[in-house]
């Protein structure tokens, strides 16, 4: 069975990276893929770059800037695949990403969402470190109440379920992926491959690098929103995470950004060791 996979890439002013992102999908070893790029009213040369892919990619252009969740929803609505694969315009897929994820989700009946590990790179493509996303089902279930345990650009899930739960929440400025995962988990469990499937680019224009305060607020809001739905009761570690969020929100946003980014760099350097701790 070789079902179609629809890869949706929203893009806004990503002239430096978008061509590499698209090429990494077009060069996948899995051969039944459609690529949908949603140009969210970019003002740089992104639109011109996309014209070079018109024969191989479906391009949708927003007349006004609609934001990331709304752009993803436009792409999903225009897609025809059995599976939905998310992708960011500044990241890079490794060649076997789609193949490995399709094989995994087909061989694990109750898994409705699968991601994988990431190689962290900078704007020039230099390696910064490696992710430590948990891979065991029960560990992912625990961690989803503390942080988002799945990399957005690595996810493959069933298209019918994404549409059934209402796709991305367009009112969310950040964490729309986390919100979607929490809704999808009503139908099954999330998994992560142990292998790296993407190169995740870290650069100064990412909202997670300069507006971590808003991300923390939204994370805490979503956790509280869905805990009643799943009858989740916080354990000791969950409460430690919640206290950490509360403390970071009590200090100036610039300081909290510096603190979080320091620990992120440390985590990337120790990613392999920490993965052993999580699993």
Provide key terms for this protein.
single chain, 279 residues, alpha/beta, Spore Coat Polysaccharide Biosynthesis Protein SpsA, Chain A, nine-stranded mixed beta sheet, 12 helices, 42% helix, 20% strand, disordered C terminus
Description:
This protein starts with a strand and ends with a helix. The model is unreliable at 271-279 (pLDDT under 50). It has helices spanning 18-26, 46-50, 68-77, 97-107, 137-143, 159-164, 176-184, 207-210, 212-227, 236-250, 253-269, 271-278, and strands spanning 5-11, 33-39, 58-61, 83-86, 92-93, 111-121, 127-130, 156-158, 189-201. Helix 9 runs antiparallel to helix 10 (236-250). It has a single domain (5-203), classed as Spore Coat Polysaccharide Biosynthesis Protein SpsA, Chain A, CATH 3.90.550.10. Strands 1, 2, 3, 4, 5, 6, 7, 8 and 9 form a 9-stranded mixed beta sheet that branches. The protein has 12 helices and 9 strands. It has 279 residues and is α/β, with parallel strands linked by helices.
Q: Please tell me how large the radius of gyration is.
A: 18 Å
Spatial shape: globular
Name the average pLDDT.
Answer: 88
Name the beta content range.
Answer: 15-25%
Spell out the helices and strands N to C.
EHEHEHEEHEEHEHHEHHHHH
Extended strand count: 9
CATH class category name? Alpha Beta
Q: Mind telling me the CATH superfamily name?
A: Spore Coat Polysaccharide Biosynthesis Protein SpsA, Chain A
Query: What CATH architecture label applies?
Result: Alpha-Beta Complex
- Low-confidence spans: pLDDT under 50, at least 5 residues? 271-279
- Estimate percent helicity: 40-55%
Domains, number: 1
**How is the biggest beta sheet arranged?**
9 strands, mixed
The secondary-structure class comes to alpha/beta
Distance between the termini: 31 Å
Question: Tally the helices: what do you get?
Answer: 12
């Amino acid at each position: 069975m070789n079902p179609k996979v629809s890869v949706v890439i929203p893009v806004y002013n990503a002239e430096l990276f978008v061509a590499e992102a698209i090429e990494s999908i077009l060069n996948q070893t899995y051969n039944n893929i459609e690529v949908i790029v949603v140009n969210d009213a970019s003002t740089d040369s992104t639109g011109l770059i996309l014209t070079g892919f018109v024969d191989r990619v479906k391009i949708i252009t927003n007349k006004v800037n609609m934001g990331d969740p709304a752009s993803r929803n436009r792409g999903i609505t225009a897609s025809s695949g059995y599976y939905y694969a998310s992708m960011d315009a500044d990241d890079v897929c490794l060649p076997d990403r789609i193949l490995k994820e399709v094989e995994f989700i087909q061989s694990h009946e109750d898994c409705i969402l699968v991601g994988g590990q990431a190689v962290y790179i900078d704007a020039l493509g230099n390696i910064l470190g490696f992710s430590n996303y948990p891979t065991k089902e029960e560990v992912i279930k625990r961690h989803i109440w503390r942080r988002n345990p799945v990399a957005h650009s690595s996810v493959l899930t069933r298209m019918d379920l994404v549409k059934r739960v209402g796709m991305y929440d367009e009112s969310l400025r950040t964490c729309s992926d986390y919100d979607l995962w929490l809704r999808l988990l009503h139908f099954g469990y999330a998994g992560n491959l142990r292998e790296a499937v993407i190169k995740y680019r870290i650069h100064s224009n990412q909202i997670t690098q300069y507006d971590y305060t808003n991300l923390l607020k939204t994370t805490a809001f979503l956790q509280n929103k869905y805990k009643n739905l799943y009858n989740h009761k916080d354990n000791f570690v969950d409460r430690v995470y919640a206290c950490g969020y509360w403390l970071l929100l009590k200090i100036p946003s610039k300081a909290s950004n510096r603190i979080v980014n320091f620990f992120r760099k440390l985590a990337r350097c120790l990613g392999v060791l920490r993965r052993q701790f999580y699993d």
